[in-house]
Automatic annotation (TrEMBL):
<feature type="transmembrane region" description="Helical">
    <location>
        <begin position="93"/>
        <end position="115"/>
    </location>
</feature>
<feature type="transmembrane region" description="Helical">
    <location>
        <begin position="153"/>
        <end position="173"/>
    </location>
</feature>
<feature type="transmembrane region" description="Helical">
    <location>
        <begin position="62"/>
        <end position="81"/>
    </location>
</feature>
<dbReference type="GO" id="GO:0005741">
    <property type="term" value="C:mitochondrial outer membrane"/>
</dbReference>
<dbReference type="Pfam" id="PF03073">
    <property type="entry name" value="TspO_MBR"/>
</dbReference>
<dbReference type="InterPro" id="IPR004307">
    <property type="entry name" value="TspO_MBR"/>
</dbReference>
<dbReference type="InterPro" id="IPR038330">
    <property type="entry name" value="TspO/MBR-related_sf"/>
</dbReference>
<keyword id="KW-0812">Transmembrane</keyword>
<protein>
    <recommendedName>
        <fullName>Translocator protein</fullName>
    </recommendedName>
</protein>
<comment type="similarity">
    <text>Belongs to the TspO/BZRP family.</text>
</comment>
<keyword id="KW-1133">Transmembrane helix</keyword>
<keyword id="KW-0472">Membrane</keyword>
<dbReference type="GO" id="GO:0033013">
    <property type="term" value="P:tetrapyrrole metabolic process"/>
</dbReference>
Length: 179
């Protein structure tokens, strides 16, 4: 079975730990910027939320740590790709890196869908796809990185499960509201 081809530029970014970490941090900052304004809006304050929602000040701190961990996991993955001659490992890492960029795109879409688009339903669809993609990516990268990527990605997987719970709750509790 032929592996997935990852363009060289997408392999070059995570080879350097600074750019590996910098890419998700920068994209997260850019895509999350609508959140700060919207979090102060009447629309956001009028949303019903499920139990367990943390204060909004927690989100930038948590997301920054998760972006650092996911970026470094991509560095670990590409270094493992460079070091292995085992075809199954190369295939798993290649697909895992492709999914990494896919989940990064889905991650960047969530804030604009939820905050700028005010669509709890579309952001929920995005959150479910993001969570599933990230769990599968983590599974693929586990064996070929000797679980190094997994340790970095497990907090992200856990947070995505929690974030999806929050998104489900917001969607469900506000589905009949007319904004």
């Amino acid at each position: 079975m032929a592996g997935i081809h990852i363009p060289n530029i997408l392999l070059a970014i995570p080879r350097n730990p600074v750019t590996a970490i910098g890419l998700p941090l920068a994209l997260g900052f850019i895509s999350g910027s609508p959140a700060s304004k919207a979090a102060n809006s009447n629309w956001y304050h009028n949303l019903n939320s499920p139990p367990g929602r943390p204060p909004r000040e927690v989100f930038p701190f948590v997301w920054s740590l998760l972006y650092i961990a996911m970026g470094y996991a991509s560095h670990v993955a590409v270094k493992s790709l460079d070091a292995t001659d085992i075809p199954a490992n190369r295939n798993d890492i290649s697909l895992g890196l492709a999914l990494y960029y896919g989940q990064l795109g889905l991650n960047c879409l969530w804030s604009p869908l939820f905050f700028a688009g005010r669509s709890t339903a579309l952001s929920l669809c995005d959150s479910v796809l993001l969570t599933g993609t990230t769990f599968y990516m983590t599974k693929l990268l586990d064996r070929p990185t000797n679980a190094k990527a997994t340790y970095l990605l497990l907090p992200y997987c856990a947070w995505l499960g929690y974030a999806t719970y929050l998104n489900v709750g917001v969607w469900w509790l506000n589905r009949k509201k007319d904004f």
